[in-house]
Write a structure and sequence with these properties.
By secondary structure, this protein is of the alpha/beta class. It contains twelve helices and 18 strands. The strands form five sheets. Strands 4-14-13-12-9-5-6 form a seven-stranded mixed sheet, sandwiched between helices. Homodimer. GO terms for molecular function: transaminase activity. It catalyses: (8S)-8-amino-7-oxononanoate + S-adenosyl-L-methionine = S-adenosyl-4-methylsulfanyl-2-oxobutanoate + (7R,8S)-7,8-diammoniononanoate. It is an enzyme of class 2 (transferase). Pathway: Cofactor biosynthesis; biotin biosynthesis; 7,8-diaminononanoate from 8-amino-7-oxononanoate (SAM route): step 1/1.
């Protein structure tokens, strides 16, 4: 996910490396969105529960709560005894077999579970090996669906500004065209149709626990009108609408009103488009619903899930689709969805995913609201800081947005000094903690974020 670095400040950018592992890594191993000669990484010495044992590049050791849940996937924490036991059990059986012409219990059981939990009548599951690849599959699926319907010229996608759907080429093409990576690959990415970013909204919880959404209704109506105009103008060339429901993640932790998703569902229906929802980051309870689409009572045609699917243990994603979509592909000239990863439906990943989803089912309705309530309470003091533009929460997501780019290295150090691991980006210091955080852990995270912002940005 794109992470432009903040401005350098404080100690020299590259102080002498005291961590042996950081020294071996530096200049040898690429890290996400980082130059080879950039700041050296922190070395993980251990992980248990919700805590990471880290060694900083200067040799300082830290025991820190992981406020990021390892990029939003380790919702059950580290060394979870249930997931560990399932992984060991599956390894003792078989860790991998090809999925071409073969099947196995973990994959079938997981597909049954996912289709039973999904919003609306999902009937089929296609396994992928990462979230980005699942988006690729969903886009391919949409093109094949339109061709099967006798509309082979429908080759483009309608999406919104501010989105992020992965780093592979087709997925990049539906990411934000300005703040994404389009400019780095001129001419290589397909040109999609972009509506404006949906207007911001806020979920308000009253003293009695009731929830309601607030937004600028005139801005929402104007946005809806522009979306409808774009769909009408380009309808004959569009295959699907692609969107992150309710919460745009790496595009800026932007929350929008469920009515926007309802508009996109209506537009898709009016123009014969599929509605593809990217629930990779928002699925499995993160936003306060099991799937974020449920905030709008919207049933997608295609849904991508990943991240929390395996609790962060292994890379796995899945594409779910309705029976209508599956039947259209079966009637098509190719009769098959034209994709087939080597590690498709990896048995080890599927076994752990079954256990992870079962844990989510059992715990999220208690844990996510609890974490969200504590984040709201303990992040609110950041609003008094002069360089804070906004504080917002949704489910187990907390965001402090600054008025200027975050000094990432300095805020990271300051948060670690308070016992919290964060990974800020752009103008955001945010947290998506593991659901299993205790109340004390959540308070530590929120107070660490506020304290780090106050220390570095005033």
């Amino acid at each position: 996910m794109p992470e432009p670095s903040g401005p350098p400040s404080g100690p020299p950018l590259h102080p002498p490396l005291q961590s042996p592992l950081a020294a071996r890594d530096h200049g040898l191993v690429w890290h996400p969105y980082a130059p080879l000669d950039g700041p050296a990484p922190y070395a993980v010495e251990g992980a248990s529960g919700v805590r990471l044992t880290l060694t900083a590049p200067d040799g300082t050791r830290h025991d820190a709560v992981d406020a990021m849940a390892s990029w939003w996937c380790a919702v059950h924490g580290y060394r979870n005894p249930v997931l560990d036991a399932v992984a060991h059990e599956q390894v003792d059986r078989f860790s991998h077999v090809m999925f071409g012409g073969l099947t196995h219990e973990p994959a079938v059981r997981l597909a049954e579970r996912l289709t039973s939990l999904a919003p609306g009548p999902m009937a089929h599951v296609f396994y992928a090996d990462s979230g980005s690849v699942s988006v690729e599959v969903a886009l391919k699926l949409s093109l094949q669906y339109q061709a099967a319907q006798g509309r082979p010229r429908r080759q483009r996608f309608l999406t919104v500004r501010g989105g992020y759907h992965g780093d592979t080429f087709a997925a990049m093409s539906v990411c934000d065209p300005v703040d994404g990576m389009h400019s780095a690959f001129p001419g290589a990415l397909a040109r999609q149709v972009f509506a404006p970013r949906p207007p911001a909204a806020r979920l308000v919880t009253t003293a009695t626990g009731e929830e309601h959404w607030e937004t600028d209704r005139s801005a929402l109506d104007a946005w809806a009108s522009e979306v409808r105009t774009l769909a009408t103008t380009h309808g004959d060339e569009l295959a699907a609408v692609v969107v992150e429901p309710i919460l745009q993640g790496a595009g800026g932790m932007h929350v929008y009103h469920p009515d926007c998703l309802r508009v996109l569902r209506e537009v898709a229906d009016e123009h014969g488009l599929l509605l593809v929802v990217d629930e990779i980051a928002t699925g499995f309870g993160r936003t306060g619903r099991l799937f974020a689409s449920e905030w709008a009572d919207v049933t997608p045609d295609v849904m991508c899930v990943g991240k929390a699917l395996t609790g962060g243990y292994l890379s796995l994603a899945a594409v779910l689709m309705t029976r209508e979509v599956g039947e259209a592909i079966t009637r098509s000239a190719f009769r098959a969805l034209l994709h087939g990863p080597t590690f498709m439906a990896n048995p080890l990943a599927c076994a752990v995913a079954n256990a992870s989803v079962e844990l989510v089912e059992a715990t999220w309705k208690d844990d996510v609201p609890r974490v969200g309530r504590l984040l709201r309470e303990h992040l609110e003091p950041a609003l008094s800081l002069p360089h804070v533009a906004d504080v917002r929460t949704l489910g187990a997501v907390g965001v402090v947005q600054l008025t200027s780019p975050v000094d990432v290295p300095a805020v990271t150090r300051a948060a670690l000094g308070r016992g919290v691991w964060v990974r800020p980006f752009r103008d955001l210091v945010y947290t998506m903690p593991p659901y299993v955080c205790t109340d004390q852990d959540v308070r530590l995270i929120a107070e660490g974020v506020v304290g780090a912002v106050a220390e570095v940005h005033g």
